[in-house]
Design goal:
single chain; alpha/beta; 60s Ribosomal Protein L30, Chain: A; Alpha/beta knot; six-stranded parallel sheet; five-stranded mixed sheet; 10 helices; 36% helix; 22% strand
Length: 256
C-alpha cells in the first residue's frame, strides 16, 4: 500500500527530526538521497523508518536487509519529508551515534570545533577530517548539531566514518595534554610558521565570527595562515580544510 497522506504516523514522526528537540527525544536523525542512504547501510547504521517511492524494489530489499521498516510513499509525501527542493526517491530515519567521550583519545589528529555554528561548515569540516584520516572530531555545546539534516548532507556520509564526541573543550584539551597531544589553533595573533609536530595533535577551529575562545587559545600553539592577497580571513571550513591538510601531512611524514 502506498502512503499518500502526510498525516501518517510514521511520516509525522520522521518529519519531527527536522528539529533538535525531535532528534534529542528520539535518538534518531534524518537522511535523504540514494548515496547517503547507501552509505548509512554500508556503515552499519541502525535504521528505524525508511521511505521509498514506488518502483525501487532493489532499494526496498537493501533497506529491509538493514532492518528498516520500509514505507512506500507518493511523491507528495516524499516532498513533505525532505529538506531539498527536488528530493530524490528515498529517505530514512536512523539511529544517531553516541557522543560519549572516550576513556583515552586515539592516536593521530583530533579536530576540535569551538563553537562552529554554521551547519554547512560543520558538515564540510567533518568530511575533510574524514578525508585526511583524522582520528575523531570533538565539538562543544555551542556547535551546530552534526546530525541535523544539512550537516549530514554536507558531510556526504562522513559522520558515520569517524567518532564525533561532545564535551567541554578546555577540560578535554587538558586530558589530551596528559596523553602528550600537541594543541594547535588557528588564530589571528599566531605565528605564520607551522609548529613542529610529528605525532598526536589536537587542531582547534574557532567560531565563524569570534574565532577560538581565549580560554582555549591559551592552551594552544597559535598559528596564523599567511594571506598573500587582500582578504583578511577565510571561511571557517576553508581555513579548517587547509589546516587539517597541513597537520595531517606533518603527522604522516612523522610516521604516524
Amino acid at each position: 500500500m502506498i502512503i499518500e497522506s502526510t498525516r501518517n504516523e510514521s511520516v509525522k514522526r520522521t518529519r519531527a527530526l527536522a528539529t533538535k528537540k525531535g532528534r534529542s527525544e528520539t535518538g534518531l536523525h534524518f537522511i535523504e538521497g540514494d548515496k547517503l542512504v547507501r552509505e548509512a547501510v554500508i556503515s552499519g547504521v541502525n535504521f528505524a523508518d525508511a521511505f521509498v517511492e514506488e518502483g525501487h524494489d532493489l532499494m526496498v530489499a537493501i533497506l529491509e536487509g538493514a532492518g528498516a521498516k520500509v514505507n512506500i510513499v507518493s511523491r507528495s509525501v516524499m516532498k513533505s519529508l525532505t529538506n531539498t527542493n527536488e528530493p530524490q526517491w528515498v529517505c530514512a530515519s536512523v539511529e544517531t551515534p553516541s557522543y560519549a567521550l572516550p576513556l583515552c583519545y586515539p592516536h593521530g589528529l583530533i579536530v576540535v570545533l569551538d563553537g562552529v555554528q554554521d551547519p554547512g561548515n560543520m558538515g564540510t569540516v567533518i568530511r575533510t577530517a574524514d578525508a585526511f584520516a583524522a582520528a575523531g572530531v570533538l565539538i562543544n555545546d555551542t556547535c551546530a548539531d552534526p546530525f541535523a539534516p544539512k550537516p549530514v548532507r554536507a558531510s556526504m556520509g562522513s559522520v558515520y566514518h569517524l567518532p564525533i564526541w561532545r564535551g567541554d573543550i578546555a577540560t578535554e584539551l587538558d586530558r589530551m595534554a596528559e596523553q602528550k597531544f600537541t594543541a594547535v589553533c588557528g588564530h589571528l595573533e599566531g605565528e605564520e610558521t607551522l609548529p613542529e609536530i610529528s605525532g598526536d595533535t589536537a587542531l582547534i577551529i574557532g567560531n565563524e565570527g569570534h574565532g577560538v575562545s581565549d580560554i582555549i587559545a591559551n592552551k594552544c600553539i597559535k598559528y596564523r595562515l599567511p594571506m598573500y592577497g587582500l582578504a583578511e580571513s577565510l571561511n571557517a571550513s576553508v581555513a579548517a580544510g587547509i589546516l587539517i591538510y597541513e597537520m595531517a601531512k606533518k603527522i604522516n611524514a612523522g610516521g604516524m
